[in-house]
Each structure stands twice: as C-alpha cells, then as structure tokens.
Amino acid sequence: MGKVRVYELAKELGINSKKLIDVLQDLQVDVKNHMSTMDEDVANRVVEMLTKGGKKPSRGNQSTSTEQGLAETPVPAMETAIPEQKSFPPRKKKESKKARLEAARESRKARRAARTATEKQATDEDKIILEGRVTVAELAGRLNVTASEILAKLLDLGIISHINQQLSEDVLSIIAEEYGVKIVLNADPGEDELQSIIDEEDEGNLRTRAPVVTVLGHVDHGKTSLLDAIRETNVIASEAGGITQHIGAYSVNVQGKQIVFLDTPGHEAFTAMRARGAQVTDIAVLVVAADDGVMPQTIEAYNHARAADVPIIVALNKIDKPNANVDKVKKQLAEIGLLPEEWGGDTIFVELSALKKQGIEELMEMILLVAEMGELKASFTRHARGTVIEAELDKGRGPVATVLIQDGVMKVGDPIICGSIYGKVRAMFDEKGRKIEKAVPSTPVEVLGLSEVPQAGDTFLVIKDEKFARQIAEKRGYKLREATLRKTQKASLDDLFKQLQDDEVDLKIIIKADVQGSAEALQESLEKIEHEQVRIKIIHKGVGAINESDVMLASASNAIIIGFNVMPQAGARKLAEREKVEIKTYKIIYEVIEDVKAAIKGLLKPKFQEVVLGQAEVRQVFKVSRVGSIAGSYVLEGTINRNCSIRIIRDGTVIHEGRIASLKRFKDDVKEVSSGFECGILLEHFNDIKEGDIFEAFMQKQVPVS
C-alpha cells in the first residue's frame, strides 16, 4: 500500500498544508507536519469526505477543489475506522532560551551556595555600574577579559552572540555570577527613549515576506556549487582555493516567489560568520556530501542552526559520485539528531547533485513548503531594522555595508544607527549592483553612507530623527571606547607582571583584511593557537590596504602585520623596510594559521623570500585584436623585468598574479625597464586591465636555511 505526504494531498486539494493538517488532526489522523505520511486509502477517504464524494483527484495531479469550498464544507465524523498510523515517540521539545538561562542561573546559585566562606564574594569593590544598552565588547572591557571569553561562556548557555550584541539583564546576571561580581544596571534616558520610539511605531498590516535561507556545511561539500546551480551563475572561479571567503546574499525567483540565500563559508575558521548566518536565517540548508559524510564542520553548522531554533533541511549532495552512500550518511546524521522523516523523524532530506543540477527543483519546493508552514510575515510600512551581513572599506565609495532588511522599509536619505555608528543612507544597490531607492523586508542590499565600517553581525535601525540618531550612536561609541581603554590599561600591567613571572613572550599581530568578516575570522583562529611560552595578541584589526599608520603601530608595538587579500601601499612598504617591520600577505586563511603555528614552534624555515623589484602604473590601455590588452605603463620605482612575476593591485587589493608575455620599449622587445621610463606590458592569459592599476614586479629569492 502506498504512502501519501500531507503536502502532496494539500496540493491535490488546492489548499494550504497548514489548514489540511488542522483538518486531519480534527479527524484523528496522526500527522505532525507537511512531511508526515498516511496510507493511500486514508488519503482517499479524506479526499472523498472533503469533496462530498465528488471526483477524486489522481495521485500527483492538481485538484479543482478550492480553499473556499473546503471552508464551506462541514467536516463529518468518520464512520469508517481509519487503519492505525505508525506512531513514534514524540520528539523532546527544545528548551527555550529563557529556560536555558533559568537552568544556568539555578546551577550557578547551587555551586555558589556550596562554596566555603573563605572564597571571594561580590563586595562593593567588585561592583560594576553599567548604563542602558550593554554589549559583549563593553562588558568584556569592564571585566578586563577578552570578548572571545565572554562569547565562549554565552555559547555554553546555547546563546550565539557577537561582540556588538546587546545583552539582556538575565544574561548579565549570569555572567556576573560567573565572575563573582555584582552588576548594577542603571537606566539610560536616551536608550529608553529610543526603545519607546521603536515600541510606539505602528507596524501597519503585516504581509508575507520571502524566506531567508542559510546554506551551511563542511568545506568542499558543495555549498557554493549548489548556489551556483540555483542561480546558474558561476561564483566558484573567484574564490581562492575553492573556499568561499565572504558571506554573500542572493535573491532568486522560484515559482514566482522570492527566496533569499545566504552563502556562508564552510572552513572551520569562519565559525563566527556561520553563526551570524544562522542568526538571521529562517531556514537552514545543511549540505552534506553523500560520498564524504558527516564532518566536524557539519556538526558545528548543525549546532549553530539548532541553537538559533532554525528548521533544517538536509541536502545530500554528490549522489552522482560512484562511492556515494546515502543510507550510511543518513545513519550518521540520525546519530547527531537529524532523523529522516521516513525513519520516523521530522527532518526533510533531499538527495541531489549540484554538478548535474539534479534534485534542485525538489529542494526549492521543500524550502517553499517550510516557509509556508512558518508563516513568515513582516511590516512593509514601518522604518527598517535588520542585520549587517558583511562590511568593507571601499577606496572610492567609503564604508560599504551589505545588510539584510528583516522588518520595515529602508529608503535613500534615511538616518540609520548601526551599533555605535551613525549614518544616512546615501545610496542602495541590490545584489546585481543595480541602484534602488527602496528596500523591503527580506531584501539584501549594499548601503553607502555610514560614518565607519560596522562589524558584521551588527543590528541596525532607521530612525526618523537624524539628530537623535547621531546622539545615540556617539554615546554608544564613547561607552565602548571608555570600556576598551580601561581594559587595555589594566591588562597591560597584568601582562607585564605575568611575563616577569612566567618568562612568557607575546607575539603581537596586526590584521588587515579586505572585509570585516575575514578579519574577525582570522583573529578568532589565531587566538585559538596555544603554546607554553608564546601568546598571540591581536593589537589591531581593520579593513583596507596596509597603510603607514599600521606600520607605525607595528613598529611601536614590535608587532608583525598580516594582510589578508590586501597589499601594503607603496609608502607603507618603504616605511616597513626602514622600520624593519615584517609584512606577510595571504589569500588563504589556513596558510596564515599554519605559518603562525610554524613560526611559534620554530619550524618555519623559508627556502625562498619574496623580493619586490619595482612598480609601474598603467597610464593607458591599448586593445589589439588577436593579441589582447596592452598596458601602456610608467615605471614608478625599481625595475620591471621580462622574466619576473607580476601582481596587479587595484585599490589596494590584489586582483591577479601572473607572468609577463611581452615587454616593449616603443617597438623593441626589452629584458627590463627602469624607473622613470615608459613601456608596454602584455600579460599572459589576462586582459582585464584598467587605467590606474599598479603592476608590481617581484621574484622569489632563495635564502640560506637557518
């Protein structure tokens, strides 16, 4: 006897799955959600009753029944006994965040009650007075600990957070007990007024919004390939080493409905970025390779989605591989809590091949069904609020933030508060780079006009009163700087004392990256590296090209500079040579981690050292048919050698590395061109050259192994 799913029956009857579930439960049919199954004869009886014995739709075909007809039809009691449905033990209900906090508080109270009277108690000296909105970063500064330490404690409570997230009084109370201090939280008139404005704002009529879907999973399991198959746009070629380095937001049209996808990196170093993805999403698609199975990042991604109370759809990818073993992978996932619905669970599994574009339509259908069950709604009239997905400093446009509108509407010209940053929306662009004037809920947009680069994960609000918005942002920034300064001063004395006692050495690092998310991920990874006598200290991190200010800070602090997808400016490179500051640049995050680990352990013994030979600026581009783009260039410093390697730097970011195909002075081929002379440069297999690009010539020089 065949089985019929709820959503299939709803589709045949032409009604909403949720309404059909209500009807079936009234008829004592054991169904829990749209993926639940029933015997075919039961489905036929239900159809017969609801259509008053009319023509029954065949399995898989659309019925002519309407929702209105169902609403008008009284549902009679079933006279014929329905065969008993297979029943499974009910799933344990997830604990709410409030319940987890209460349990943690009670546990800590019990431990504190058991302590001896000689142990330190929270006295007046341990009292910390805080005001209004308190973030993780501010609390860490006042407690003289790192923000990552606070975040780790919050994670133990099942709370995924970020450094600029506001903490509730309950959470502050638990953290206070953990550190043996007493926190006094005073009111902040400005924050209270802001909250009052938010609460009083009319939501208007709530309307259905598009679902936001996060694609999670282990590295190389095919997340980007899946998005590529969905969007039919190749994004893999731009990613170094095949690893997605930034969060992207993409909106696609499926069956006339919008779905927003967030693509999060799968490498373990991007834990914080993936956590942010789980926080802003409505549905998580967990991609697992059928030939590889459950991996550490698979479990980590699942835990993030579970902690955020997000429904999960498992996408079993690479089923076309010869060594694919679907049942084995399902068993592995069942062991961590993702039980397939055909095995008695309620997790949707979709088998697919992103490479061959198989199973994509079924995945889209499942996403729309889960979204329908979630009844996702938002206001399309009130002022916007949402989350920063990514942020960077663009040389020409200033701070650029990719944001997701979660509720309300954002318009060009709106004043905006983003954490401790103020701004006014100067321009907005959709994911295709088109300029737009207005953005509605579930829309990912690029926003220009912020005063600084925000942190990825920051929440933002549009406030009508521009002056008030600026005041709130400035006060938040002042509080954060004050807390950070207090922490830095006290920590430096403690560190000095500890160094004298333990003979420990600090490896100080300055991080510069192309986007904020990468800088955070790199910091988190480096701070996890442990050694008996060497400690990693990130003294500064930022976005944009490495500049002279970074070099001066490194020189004064005896630090090294790590550049991720960025290069030093010409002045910064010369200053670094003069000040003997080491600058290391990378494009793959795990190469940074491995090099730092090797350096700490004394294992880094380079056989080659990069030597910069010279720089040339592109003054004019000549396009020659059957040859390519020839860069008419002027050598700014050093020499350009015919046999050297070339990197192209555009706005401080390396966009290409390769070799020279031809080097000419006028019509003559030459071996090298010195500073102050013009030349024509043709590159091998690369023609995307623009005026203003910098060609940097370099070579790998062999050095003796120490």
Summary tags:
alpha+beta, 6-stranded antiparallel beta barrel, Rossmann fold, 706 residues, globular, Arc Repressor Mutant, subunit A
Describe the overall structure.
- The chain is an alpha+beta fold.
- Among the domains are: 3-72, Arc Repressor Mutant, subunit A; 210-375, Rossmann fold (3-Layer(aba) Sandwich), CATH 3.40.50.300; 503-604, Rossmann fold (3-Layer(aba) Sandwich), CATH 3.40.50.10050; 609-702, Translation factors (Elongation Factor Tu (Ef-tu), domain 3, Beta Barrel), CATH 2.40.30.10.
- Helices cover 33% and strands 29% of the residues.
- The chain contains 19 helices and 33 strands.
- The strands form eight sheets. A six-stranded mixed β-sheet has the order 7-8-6-9-10-11, with helices on both faces. The protein has a six-stranded antiparallel β-barrel with strand order 13-14-20-17-16-21.
- β29 and β30 form a beta hairpin.
- It is globular and about 90 Å long.
- The chain starts with a strand and ends with a strand.
- Mean pLDDT is 78; it is low at 55-94, 118-125, 233-238 and 488-497.
Describe the structure concisely:
The protein has about 700 residues and is an alpha+beta fold. It has 19 helices and 33 strands.
Q: What fraction of the residues are assigned to beta strands by DSSP?
A: 25-35%
CATH class of the domain at 210-375: Alpha Beta
In DSSP terms, counting alpha (H) and pi (I) runs of 4 or more, how many helices?
Answer: 19
Q: What's the main sheet like?
A: 6 strands, mixed
Structural class: alpha+beta
